[in-house]
Specification:
With about 500 residues, this protein is mainly beta. It folds into three domains: about 140 residues, Immunoglobulin-like; about 130 residues, Sandwich (Immunoglobulin-like), CATH 2.60.40; about 120 residues, Immunoglobulin-like (Sandwich). It has five helices and 34 strands. It has a six-stranded mixed sheet with strand order 13-10-15-20-17-18, with no helix packed on it. The two termini are about 30 Å apart. The N terminus is likely disordered. The structure holds CU-O-CU linkage (C2O) and copper (II) ion.
Length: about 500
Amino acid sequence: MIGAAGSLGLLSVGGVAAWSRSGSSVRATSEAVQKAEAARRTAGQRVVSARLRPQPVTVNLGGRVVQTWAYGESVPGPVLRATAGDLLRVTVANGLDTDTSVHWHGVALRNDMDGVPGMTQDPIRPGEPFTYEFTAPDPGTYFYHPHSGVQLDRGLYGVLVIEDPADPGDHDQEWIVVLDDWVDGTRRTPDEVLAELLAAGGSAADGGQPGMDHGSMSGTHHGAMGGMAEGMQSDVLGGAGDVAYPHYLVNGRTPDAPVTLSARPRQRVRIRIVNAGSDTAFRIALGGHRLRVTHTDGFPVEATETDALLIGMGERFDVMVTLQDGVFPLVASAEGKRGQGLAVVRTGAGRTPDADARPAELSRRVLLGTDLAAVASVALPDVHPDTTHDLVLGGSMAPYRWTLNGKTHPDVASLEVHQGERVRLRFLNMSMMFHPMHVHGHTFGLRAGGARKDTVIVRPMEGVEVDLVADNPGQWATHCHNIYHAEAGMMATLSYQA
Ligand code: C2O
Ligand code: CU
């Protein structure tokens, strides 16, 4: 199936027929979805309105000027802010010449506003508006992006902050740090990258396509091919990606022209870190400082100190830092790849760090989301599940195909659940590459008191078990947040049944 933009269109299965077909499924248009939203509404609820215009733009990434698609004029798009319990009303005016959608990543919202064409809505056609309107129930750091093809790998992403009315306000400043791997406008679009992956499918031939690591494409870490072992490998994650990007960005800037984050010495800063990359995990560290991790994917964790943090695509971490006096590199190293993103933290005099600064903290203790523990107030008690679904993660580079339970979307059998059930998902990674697995509309708990999350890294030959409460009816995409994997089939539906 070839979509309008030339992609496979797997994230967007098509028109109304595809998403209203199934018999006893609780559809996005069902009364149960309306009711769930009605229960979130309150009298005198504050309304936060915003507009987003996805459109073609020319942006300056810091010396490098590229043509891309963005929300408005800049990359990242605007930061949207509301408070937990508010009603968000966001009108999207599609200024692209192709279909699009907006997904509110991590938010436990009403299913019909989840922004998945073919599952929860029809695509937003060129020139058409669509208004997303939903209550944001939980505070935290979220982000928004299209759920249409590989559009996320353009400049189409922005941060959504849902403030906590009970925030202790124990910090002097808040910074938002968005990480991204960048290829668009550097002679190739993400759609072309996907087409190459699908066409090359493991061929080691180098057709003169800079940025594509053909060594990895036929690398042994995928198990099947042998030879060409010099792929993108991480000692923590194993196979680290399929695409070697020409640039890695922090807040839309290359390391040659980084953003500066300013504060005064000894100030406490809350940093909200979002990985909006499509095929890259980032290892982030701040020279001269340790990071105190307080939240992941919006939810609080037992505060944990670390030197470095490994962030998969779609994951978010909030960290607290008490700043020293001087100038410090905040480095986001592309895990298992060549290159990094950089921001400069400045509280005093000093020279700006080099683009390739490597603070020692990067190679000290590195923490993953799976290392964290939920605070008691959000921990899910470890009870026996009513329903358990296994998801075996697999795939190959030749053909370029990523699977759940041996199948590609939409052939993966739905994960059927019923309202009120306790559901366990058991991710078992039988590939030699890591996969950040994401569930829409819910925040699951990692078993044995682990963090509440909506996106979790599953490493090669590792099993990760998560529990969730089925309290948000509808049809929910569940997929790898490597956008190329999702497009190549690694997606299923968490499907409420009546
Ligand atoms: Cu951030 Cu289904 O995605
Ligand atoms: Cu994956």
